[in-house]
């Protein structure tokens, strides 16, 4: 998949663990920063480090927002293409754990 040209600052993804069972990545976003378009190959769990607002861009120009609360986890299935943007005015971080035993 060819990623569209970026107009936003990239978020910083730091892989903390990557083994045969899980990949754990901490994502740090300045206001307006984005992950870039991607698709998860496995079910994943997100644990916000900070409160904040995500703007999630979806194929076809659709968007949605998600309000994050520090320490309140959520999960998503594999396979949906998306771009995640810090839609707030403060830095934002979360830890994402992908479960390699649950492929998409």
Largest sheet: 5 strands, antiparallel
Which geometry do the CA atoms define? globular
CATH level-4 homologous superfamily: Jelly Rolls
Instruction: Name the helicity range.
Output: under 10%
Strand-residue fraction? over 45%
The pLDDT mean sits at: 93
Q: Alpha-carbon distance between the termini? A: 17 Å
The unreliable regions are: none
CATH topology: Jelly Rolls
What tags apply to this protein structure?
four-stranded antiparallel β-sheet, five-stranded antiparallel β-sheet, 104 residues, 9 strands, globular, Jelly Rolls, mainly beta
SSE arrangement:
Elements: E1 12-18, E2 22-29, E3 38-39, E4 42-48, E5 52-57, E6 63-68, E7 74-76, E8 81-86, E9 92-103
Antiparallel strand pairs: 1-2, 2-9, 3-8, 4-7, 4-9, 5-6, 5-8
Pfam family, one: Cupin_2
InterPro entries: Cupin_2, RmlC-like_jellyroll, RmlC_Cupin_sf
Protein name: Cupin domain-containing protein
Describe this structure in words.
By secondary structure, this protein is mainly β. It has one domain: Jelly Rolls (Sandwich), CATH 2.60.120. The chain is built from no helices and nine strands. It has strands at residues 12-18, 22-29, 38-39, 42-48, 52-57, 63-68, 74-76, 81-86, 92-103. It has a five-stranded antiparallel β-sheet, with no helix packed on it. Strands 3-8-5-6 form a four-stranded antiparallel β-sheet, with no helix packed on it. The chain is globular and about 35 Å long.
């Amino acid at each position: 998949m060819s990623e569209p040209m970026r107009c936003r600052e990239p978020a910083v993804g730091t892989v903390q663990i990557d083994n045969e069972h899980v990949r754990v990545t901490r994502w740090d976003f300045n206001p307006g920063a984005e992950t870039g378009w991607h698709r998860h190959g496995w079910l994943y769990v997100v644990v916000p480090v900070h409160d904040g607002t995500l703007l999630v861009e979806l194929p076809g120009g659709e968007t949605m927002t998600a309000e994050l609360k520090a320490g309140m986890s959520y999960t998503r299935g594999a396979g949906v293409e998306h771009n995640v943007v810090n839609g707030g005015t403060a830095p934002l971080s979360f830890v994402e754990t992908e479960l390699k035993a649950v492929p998409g």
